[in-house]
Specification:
Layout: H1 6-12, H2 17-31, H3 33-36, E1 47-57, E2 67-83, E3 88-93, E4 98-103, H4 117-129, E5 137-143, H5 153-168, H6 175-180, H7 184-196, H8 216-223, E6 228-233, E7 238-244, E8 249-255, H9 266-288, H10 295-299, H11 305-314, H12 323-349, H13 353-371, H14 376-387, E9 392-396, E10 403-409, H15 413-427, E11 436-440, E12 447-448
Parallel strand pairs: 3-5
Antiparallel strand pairs: 1-2, 1-12, 2-5, 2-6, 3-4, 6-7, 8-10, 8-11, 9-10
């Protein structure tokens, strides 16, 4: 491939000009890895851009069949892959100069507390779900996504690995693939199951990466469009509506510097929020005799289902979660999915940013009191962003650290970032070096170039 054409192709796909140029430079950086390996440059093989995402709204809702409001960003993974004649997979990070190598097999040991768990999990699941003689590859990535910041760098790496291995092995021609994966939405759901270890259709589950999440990240990465926010329902994935990002507004991401690494210390807390939603559904099923597959389906089964579930929770005696905690989690889920997200999209459609900001504030407050997944740093970032003039601001992603997005007029970004950064560093001087403040425009879904 002519690398000079990359900026144009990326721009045509929806990346702003400066971002497209930056990605071409990352692709070049990735290609240089072959020189470090003492090999010639890779042949004209597929290259992939796999973006991060912003969860505008939809805090811990996807795995319970709820709603999210999502967009992809202009930052992400630039991936170069080259085929091997053997079944070995070698994956390298060209920015941090780290690599991992493993045999793609159904018995691959994936135990790890670093980034290599994601490509290993993909390779093992492929070998189990799509049996046959699999061919390996050398895959190098260069990313400008901050890690453990809520922008879904881990899921983006998982998606990138699958896309490269799938193309190398023509998985879309495998009978098991054709029987189960018929759309990008299906693929997103399947990749969510790869990450959380669940079964998808007839594709048996496996160990996953240890988190009990859903497919929100994978759906955004594969299905969102540049310039648009997508309202999505899950279990199964359904795109309900899209709305344009308000003209002249951009996202600024305040990365707290408190890591939200789902393979590290945040994993247990993340899983606690997920398991609480599962416990609510189990209590309802046991008490009512109903069998709705998701918490969302249970809530919308009738006009008074919400009240009935609430009563069941108030009388519950769960071995892990007190009734009060389950009620708070339930209220957060219902308000986020049933009320806040549809009303927020309506507000954006009529360009009512005042109302949109109020609804986002409500979501943020529910995350603090219902999910309890906010820390002092993200609370300060959200509140100070609003005080400094952001139309809306919210923590996002797994929580327990991570980042906050702020929607800001593009002609006010420079002053806003300077003031937001100063406010944060004054309050948390120990995080001056760990935190970051970045402009993030929307971008396209994953691309094969």
């Amino acid at each position: 491939m002519n690398r000079a054409s990359l900026p144009d192709r990326l721009s045509q796909a929806g990346l702003p000009g400066p971002a497209a140029k930056g990605k071409a430079e990352l692709f070049q950086q990735a290609s240089l890895q072959w020189e470090r390996w003492g090999q010639g440059p890779p042949a004209e093989e597929p290259r992939y851009f796999v973006p991060g995402r912003i969860e505008v709204l939809g805090k811990h809702t996807d795995y319970a069949g709820g709603r999210s409001l999502l967009c992809t960003v202009e930052r992400g993974f630039c991936v170069v892959a080259s085929p091997r004649s053997d079944p070995w997979v070698r994956v390298a990070d060209a920015v941090r100069h780290q690599e991992t190598q493993f045999l793609a097999s159904a018995d691959l040991d994936i135990v790890s507390n670093d980034w290599s768990v994601y490509p290993k999990t993909v390779a093992r699941r492929i070998a189990r779900n799509f049996p046959g003689r699999h061919r390996g590859l050398d895959m190098v990535f260069a990313s400008d996504l901050p890690s453990a910041a809520g922008l879904s760098s881990s899921s983006a790496l998982l998606v990138a690995t699958f896309l490269a291995l799938s193309k190398r092995n023509n998985l879309d021609q495998h009978p098991a693939y054709r029987d189960n994966i018929r759309s990008q939405e299906d693929l997103a759901t399947y990749l969510g199951c790869v990450e959380n270890g669940q079964t998808f259709g007839t594709l048996a589950g496996d160990v996953g990466v240890g988190t009990f999440g859903g497919s929100e990240d994978h759906t955004a990465i594969l299905c969102c469009q540049a310039g648009q926010l997508s309202q999505v329902r899950f279990c199964p994935v359904r795109l309900e509506r899209t709305v344009a990002l308000p003209r002249d507004y951009v996202f600024v991401i305040g990365v707290s510097g408190v890591g939200a690494d789902k393979t590290g210390s945040a994993r247990e807390k993340y899983n606690c929020a997920s398991q609480a939603a599962k416990a609510i559904l189990e209590i309802w099923r046991t008490g009512s005799g109903q069998a709705e597959p998701t918490l969302f389906e249970a809530v919308v089964r009738s006009s008074d289902a919400w009240h009935q579930i609430r009563q069941a929770l108030s009388r519950s005696s769960h071995s892990v979660y007190p009734a009060e905690a389950l009620l708070e989690r339930f209220e957060q889920f219902v308000d986020e999915c049933i009320h806040i997200i549809p009303a927020a999209v309506d507000a954006l459609a009529r360009n009512d940013l005042v109302e949109f900001g109020k609804l986002v504030d409500r979501s943020q407050a529910a995350a603090e009191h219902g999910l309890r997944n906010q820390v002092a740093e993200t609370l300060h970032l959200a509140r100070s962003a609003r005080q400094l003039g952001a139309a809306a601001a919210s923590g996002f992603g797994a929580g327990f650290g991570g980042a906050v997005w702020a929607m800001v007029r593009s002609d006010q970004v420079e002053d806003f970032v300077a003031n937001w950064k100063n406010s944060y560093h004054t309050r948390f001087p120990g995080l001056v070096n760990a935190s970051d403040f970045i402009l993030c425009r929307t971008g396209p879904s994953a691309l094969c170039l």
